[in-house]
């Protein structure tokens, strides 16, 4: 361990899996929901109510058929490509990368997700336990701007309330990101230095504080407790 107890988990060190038309690597698996994760020191166990993260892609013209979720907040980050969404909360919507859709499953939803335009679409999917069970389902879409972090869950900017705050940024060369609190972060693209360690595409970073400086620019997911973020 180095300064701030920094740990880096490399995607290529973990088994590749998936289902239906999705190829993915499960990198954050919380034993509260998946007991078998207790014996998996190779993955992250998350932080607080942040319980799951998978990095992967939708195959061209393929995806996940209609399936259900309940009492979970789902952040879907599409770094590139176009993903269609249909189900009980609406048909015909789409996420254009780089973009984010947050779904509050609440009392229960059914949906299908699939790539559009005949191209592969990359995906980072992140799950959080909601602040309480039985909430009204809903979803929010976010367009990401280069050079800044956008809060998509938690915080105080009109997002769904949660005990965790999730920020996603399209950082450019030389940009920085930091927190003085416990965190888990994921880099989907690019290269950076985190607490003095080189990190790059497909890396999970976790520790007690973060000082990150981009090298080539990077797409960054940063998760921490909402009470410390504020």
How would you describe this structure to a colleague?
This protein has 230 residues and is mainly beta. The chain has one domain: Jelly Rolls (Sandwich). 2% of the residues lie in helices and 57% in strands. The protein is built from 1 helix and 19 strands. The protein has one helix spanning 226-229, and strands at 7-10, 17-19, 22-29, 50-58, 63-69, 73-78, 82-87, 90-96, 99-104, 109-115, 121-128, 138-143, 149-153, 164-171, 176-179, 183-194, 197-200, 203-207, 210-225. The strands form 3 sheets. Strands 1, 13, 14, 15, 16, 17, 18 and 19 form an 8-stranded antiparallel sheet that branches. Strands 2-3-4-11-6-9-12 form a 7-stranded antiparallel sheet, with no helix packed on it. It has a 4-stranded antiparallel sheet with strand order 5-10-7-8, with no helix packed on it. The longest helix is centred in the last third of the chain and has 4 residues, at 226-229. The mean pLDDT is 93.
Order of helices and strands: EEEEEEEEEEEEEEEEEEEH
**How many domains comprise the coordinates?**
1
> How many DSSP-defined strands?
19
Query: Any idea of the CATH topology?
Result: Jelly Rolls
Fraction of residues in helix = under 10%
The CATH superfamily bears the name Jelly Rolls
Q: Assign the CATH class.
A: Mainly Beta
Strand content: over 45%
The main β sheet shows up as: 8 strands, antiparallel
Q: Number of helix segments?
A: 1
**Which class best fits the helix and strand makeup?**
mainly beta
Computed CA radius of gyration, to the nearest angstrom: 17 Å
Shape: globular
The overall average pLDDT, rounded, is 93
Instruction: List low-confidence stretches.
Output: none
- First-to-last CA distance: 28 Å
